[in-house]
Amino acid sequence: MRTTTTREVYYVFVTHFRSQRECDSAILDVAKVLGVSRRSLGLSASPKGWFCGSVEITRRGTLPSGKDVSGTIDGTALSSIQGLPITREWIERDEEGRNEQGVEISVSSKDAKCILVIEKEGVFNRLSEERLYDRFPCIMVTGKGFPDLCTRALVKTLHEELDLPVLGLCDMNPYGISVLSVYFCAGDRMGVDGNYRYSVPIEWMGLRPTDFAALHEKHRLPNTVFQSLTDLDRKRMDSLTDEMSPYLDEDEKDEVSEEMKYKVELEALYWLGADFLGDWVFNKLQARFE
Questions:
Q1: What is the pLDDT of residue 267?
Q2: What is the per-residue pLDDT across 111-121, written as a single tens digit (0 to 9) for each?
Q3: What are φ and ψ of residue 251, in 5° steps?
Q4: Which residues contact 95 (CB under 8 A, 6 or more apart)?
Q5: How crowded is residue 220: how many other Cβ atoms within 10 Å of its Cβ?
Q6: Phi, psi at 162, each rounded to 5°
Q7: What residues have CB less than 8 Å from 66, skipping those under 6 apart?
Q8: Cβ atoms 49, 141 nearer than 8 A
């Protein structure tokens, strides 16, 4: 089946839509009304997410052209700090692990203890550059903000096939928590691609208000790292802490509603030293698996 990208659709109908976002919204509406996935409509998006760390990806088979693509990729042998792109092959895999071209794709890991989902690409790049996964065996993934289908599908594959817990690292703000929540439940807006189709039980590891309170008490970070909550932030908080919201447990909802009085980005921890963020994440992971 011939496919096209959502970007191509936008430019084919550029006189009908005011923006790419409006086009994407219309595509979601069509898929939802028809009760099919975007992939069933022949639509795909450009690769967005990245992953690296203690994981091996093995492919076995030949393409229809006859080219043999068999081989294993080591997630720690990186040609760039970004790692490996997350492509649509993760939503194409069937129950036997084969993609649409008949190539078998399998995942394995010698020592990974968890999957670390990182909200922000910049933080992911920094931890990748520092090779956090050598200090603490893990698989690092970023969807660069809200994840696309391919990233969600990869995380679900790693979680189920390697039987690894999923931990989330995000800014201390409602937006960051909302990003993590999409890995747990993408919502009804996505139609058949949403809700729990690619759901994983992702833990909110940090940066949490209780984490930052302890750091601030010990190190006294400057006032400039504190950001005021906006009206949109408060709406997100209300949604996250609503009794019908499925992601956070009751204690976490209380922590958000009672202790998140301001926003703090993960990068604020660099004020404490260039290596502080990596050390802090390493210590959090160690404490989680003691």
A1: 93
A2: 999 999 999 99
A3: -65, -40
A4: none
A5: 8
A6: -105, -5
A7: none
A8: yes
